[in-house]
Amino acid sequence: MPKLNLRLKFLLLSILPLVLAASAISWLVFAQAERLAEAEIRTFERNILKSRKDELKSYLELAMASIDHIYSVASPLDAVSKERVKAIIEDLSYGEDGYFFIYDRDGTALVDPPQPWRLGQTYWNLRDINGNSVIQGLIFNAEKGGDFMRHVWEKPSTGMPTEKISYSLMLDKWDWMIGTGIYIDDISEQVAEIESEVSNHIRETTISIVGVTILAVLLVGISGTVVTLSERKLADAKLKELTHRVVDVQEQERARVSRELHDGISQILVSVKYAVETAIARIGQSSSTAIEPMEKAAKRLQDAIQEVRQISRDLRPAVLDDLGLKPAIESMCSELEDRSGMRIDVKCDAIDNQLDIAKKTTLYRVLQETLTNIVRHADATVVTILIKREGPSIVMRIDDNGVGFETNRYIRNRDPRAGIGLRNMRERMEFHGGGLSVRSEPDDGTRITAFIPANAHNDLPDTSISS
User: Fold this and answer.
1) What is the mean pLDDT of the chain?
2) Please, what sign has the CA dihedral across residues 437, 359, 328, 312?
């Protein structure tokens, strides 16, 4: 499986949480919308059914009122009154499929306008397609004072079995059950229509969320790509700058070594050459003064040896490898004292066994660079160096009483070559997990504080040192 590069990992880490969050939100919205829609649909259905039941009850009450003037004065065996009531009920209707029916207590059909062929037949055991005992249920509801029953019955306008709600009452004097019903297939259609609309709304909302998510992912991807390209350009620029700085440092070091060889050793060797040639000439003349140029040549050769040693020390001090950091620092400071006339006070704890050779070299080079800057720019007379263990780190403080400088100028200055020495020292320390800070004010000297973790730990010192 190919490894993902760092930029792609960052892009995935920024997009993946967005996709997961959008998916979770979509799921929550979808589930919540479904629950709310189901609750609203059931509420709508209950309200419609309640309205229809109230309507049925009103219809049956009207029917009872229309026959009350006959029924109230008739006797249980009054056949004429019964026929008059049947005729009135048979003529009553409402809407396209609204009618009234009468069955006796045994389940015999007495009035059923849409299905006159049922008259005179007993339907006590009649069941609908769902297994409900329709006539028994209607009679039972009527006997207990009137109630509603939901069942399936043939719809007159279509001739198809359709769900229906019926309400029935009892004419106790004649043992008749009178009732009416409303077909509720239109309610099912309305509910199905509402469910369809809700599903469409949920689907549109989900599509909108997915669209917004895709748009957000695209924006994140585009912005990530733009940032990546910007960072790459910046990294390329910094790499070019670093390469240029490395080349500059190399050229400066080569120029320094070349200058020292040309101005020091080369001149000394030329002088020795002339002295030796003079001595040879005088020896050839058997002159007693030949010894003088030979002595001069020996002295000049000694100077050349010292120059070579100095250059060697600058390139890589052997005492650092042979004796350790403390002797190397003391030797460097002693020689600089002799050359510059500055007083350099060194206090260095025994820390050689707490640092590896790379960290020792870093501290030595930072101190060397600092002292070189002091000699060139600070015009100082006294330098104090303190190197000791503080917490988990080795700390080096260098103080001088020179002219100082404005440290913020190096922060504000956008020239990449400004303060290159300080940047190099800071980068050397940061490479080992340490740091470097500079505190200076014009005419108030300078303090440079550098710290580096001891024993290969990258911990900060316990004392407060800004870096």
Assistant:
1) 80
2) negative
Residues 22/212, Cβ–Cβ less than 8 Å: yes
Describe the crossing of helices 185-260 and 6-71 by its angle, rounded to 10 degrees: 170
Cα 142 to Cα 157: distance, rounded to the nearest angstrom: 27
d(CA 423, CA 431): 12
What are the structure tokens assigned to 196, written together? 């369809």
Report how far residue 162's alpha carbon sits from residue 418's, in angstroms, rounded to the nearest whole number.
Answer: 93
C-alpha Rg value of the chain to the nearest Å: 55
CA 335/CA 226 separation, integer angstroms: 55
Q: How confident is the model at residue 46 (pLDDT cuts 50, 70, 90)?
A: confident
Alpha-carbon distance 312 to 306, whole Å?
Answer: 10
* Contact (CB, 8 A) for 100 and 63: yes
pTM over 0.90: no
- Contact indicator for 378, 446 with CB cutoff of 8 Å: yes
The backbone torsions φ and ψ at residue 164, rounded to the nearest 5 degrees and listed phi first, read -145, 150
Beta bridge partners of 128: none
For residue range 209-266, list pLDDT tens digits in order: 778 777 877 777 777 677 777 777 887 787 777 776 766 666 666 666 666 666 666 6
| One-letter amino acid of 243 | T
Within 10 angstroms of residue 37's Cβ, the number of other Cβ atoms is 17
CA distance 1 to 88: 89
Question: Alpha carbon of 138 to those of 101, 120, 391: distances in Å?
Answer: 11, 18, 96
Q: Phi-psi region for residue 286, left (φ > 0), alpha (ψ -120 to 50) or beta?
A: left
Strand order in the sheet with 393-400: 343-348, 382-390, 393-400, 446-453, 435-440
**Distance between CA atoms of 103 and 123, rounded to whole angstroms?**
9
Query: Alpha carbon of 463 to those of 355, 362, 366, 388, 459: distances in Å?
Result: 19, 21, 21, 12, 12
User: How many CB atoms are located within 10 Å of the residue 90 CB?
Assistant: 18
Measured torsion, CA atoms of residues 52, 56, 59, 63, in degrees rounded to the nearest 10 = 170
Cα 423 to Cα 438: distance, rounded to the nearest angstrom: 11
Please name which of 101, 89, 102, 125 lies closest in space to residue 182, comparing C-alpha atoms.
Answer: 101
- The two tokens of residue 61 are 């009450």
